[in-house]
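[09:14] KT: can someone run the structure on this one? pasting the chain below
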Amino acid sequence: QVQLLESGGGLVQPGGSLRLSCAASGFTFSIYTMSWVRQAPGKGPEWVSTINTAGGSTYYADSVKGRFTISRDNAKNTLYLQMNSLKPEDTALYYCARGGSGSKIWGQGTQVTVSS
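[09:31] RB: done, structure tokens below
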């Protein structure tokens, strides 16, 4: 079955960086667009970024553009999200999603907390 396992979250100070990873299994990773979605406490899900199958096209929410970078390694069935210049408002549970911004196939999530 489809499995998406996120890792790399943690507590970081404002201005810091984190790199999230998502290990995919149970499907042919290389033929799917992949995305990151986040959900802050008390708020609905927010689309963060999407990458196409080959990794040549990437898309970002305005709130993270210029600070976050999505990438993928199809040989390793892994999706990444490099997050720089983190802000307190980036605090959320981050999910890897199979598909585009409307995907309902998510992993269990990894917590990112940005606080001094």
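[09:33] KT: thanks! The mean pLDDT is 97.
[09:34] RB: yep, looked fine to me
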